[in-house]
């Protein structure tokens, strides 16, 4: 027979999960979102101007014969 953990406080499990969820969002989802956002932009060399180019960057890379 297995014992089952019962939380008396209804919000305790959420408080215990909150730090892990926050770390996952800050260190995984946020950088991944920024990488996807920046992959559809074109910036000048100094980073002063950006232009939204949608999937043009991907098209340029995938149509390049030297890209493996």
Shape: elongated
Give the integer mean of the pLDDT values. 93
How many helices? The count is 2
Terminal-residue CA separation: 57 Å
The major beta sheet can be summarized as: 2 strands, antiparallel
SSE run: HEEH
Structural class: mainly alpha
Strand tally: 2
Number of domains in the coordinates?
Answer: 1
Structure write-up:
There is one protein chain. The relative contact order is 0.08. Strand 1 and strand 2 (50-52) form a beta hairpin. It contains 2 helices and 2 strands; from the N terminus they run αββα. It is mainly alpha-helical. The protein has a two-stranded antiparallel ribbon. It has one domain (12-62).
Helix/strand layout:
Layout lengths: L11 H28 L1 E3 L6 E3 L3 H7 L6
Antiparallel strand pairs: 1-2
Give keywords.
68 residues; mainly alpha; two-stranded antiparallel ribbon; 2 helices
Summarize the structure.
This protein is mainly alpha-helical. The protein is built from two helices and two strands, in the order αββα.
